[in-house]
């Protein structure tokens, strides 16, 4: 297992061309579970391939602990890798597929038997170890592929490139849970590429959010939800994403059209100093209905969706569309919904970046 350091790392596929990866400086700690999250084309797979050694970066270094692996081939980096589609030998038994990486390194057969049995039990493959892989289901084959990446104890890291894409949706949560259990038991450094926020947030200790080759934020799922450092992170994380409204700042208030919304005074001062295009951001879940004598802000309701255990209200505050998530017990008046934007949850952004 290794601490992974990306030291002034950047990549251009053609000299003088656009950056596929913008210059970055990051450290991923030994034994951590990380997810690379972002839309297609944002640079996730390029970054994963640089870490694995399939692509050599045009700038910077990749360090595994104190070891510079930038120019080393994948096999010399001592990593495990699991791809989007299962990489297995159909003519081999499940046991022999799992044992292959160990036999390829001339491990002792007694150790191989113990290790394969251990991994197979963790992944729920113990009952099919003697079966050939060719007749198994797609999810079982991907479990084998996962097992092949996890079976070695001496790897610096295990890299996953969208490993659940071919799995039926109702089985994905089972495999995500298995991966979490594997991480907790083996304490491996895991890096998981996905465009699916649910996969990223349920798998990872820390999520790396990327856009256009740039790392926008590295943080826990809670931090990404509560304090997104970029408007894209706020938009991309959550369903629906964060509400954003163009505003100006006067005193300790954000002025949104005709509405004046209280914000943290220190954040308001930081926004004034930052200048640029200002936006007020708040999560749909954190807007609450006004109570008692609270004046609140009137949202004109356009649509109410009953989603089982909650309601999603879509409406307008002035010219801005706003989403509000409410308990099913909440009542909505005919003239609209009066709401409060809690000061601690109302965030200010200058040119898309969180201030304060």
UniProtKB/TrEMBL annotation:
<dbReference type="Pfam" id="PF00005">
    <property type="entry name" value="ABC_tran"/>
</dbReference>
<keyword id="KW-0067">ATP-binding</keyword>
<protein>
    <submittedName>
        <fullName>ABC transporter ATP-binding protein</fullName>
    </submittedName>
</protein>
<keyword id="KW-1003">Cell membrane</keyword>
<dbReference type="GO" id="GO:0055052">
    <property type="term" value="C:ATP-binding cassette (ABC) transporter complex, substrate-binding subunit-containing"/>
</dbReference>
<dbReference type="InterPro" id="IPR015853">
    <property type="entry name" value="ABC_transpr_FbpC"/>
</dbReference>
<dbReference type="Pfam" id="PF17912">
    <property type="entry name" value="OB_MalK"/>
</dbReference>
<keyword id="KW-0547">Nucleotide-binding</keyword>
<dbReference type="InterPro" id="IPR003439">
    <property type="entry name" value="ABC_transporter-like_ATP-bd"/>
</dbReference>
<dbReference type="InterPro" id="IPR040582">
    <property type="entry name" value="OB_MalK-like"/>
</dbReference>
<dbReference type="GO" id="GO:0015408">
    <property type="term" value="F:ABC-type ferric iron transporter activity"/>
</dbReference>
<feature type="domain" description="ABC transporter">
    <location>
        <begin position="4"/>
        <end position="237"/>
    </location>
</feature>
<dbReference type="InterPro" id="IPR008995">
    <property type="entry name" value="Mo/tungstate-bd_C_term_dom"/>
</dbReference>
<dbReference type="InterPro" id="IPR027417">
    <property type="entry name" value="P-loop_NTPase"/>
</dbReference>
<keyword id="KW-0813">Transport</keyword>
<dbReference type="InterPro" id="IPR003593">
    <property type="entry name" value="AAA+_ATPase"/>
</dbReference>
<dbReference type="GO" id="GO:0016887">
    <property type="term" value="F:ATP hydrolysis activity"/>
</dbReference>
<dbReference type="InterPro" id="IPR012340">
    <property type="entry name" value="NA-bd_OB-fold"/>
</dbReference>
<keyword id="KW-0472">Membrane</keyword>
<dbReference type="InterPro" id="IPR047641">
    <property type="entry name" value="ABC_transpr_MalK/UgpC-like"/>
</dbReference>
<dbReference type="GO" id="GO:0005524">
    <property type="term" value="F:ATP binding"/>
</dbReference>
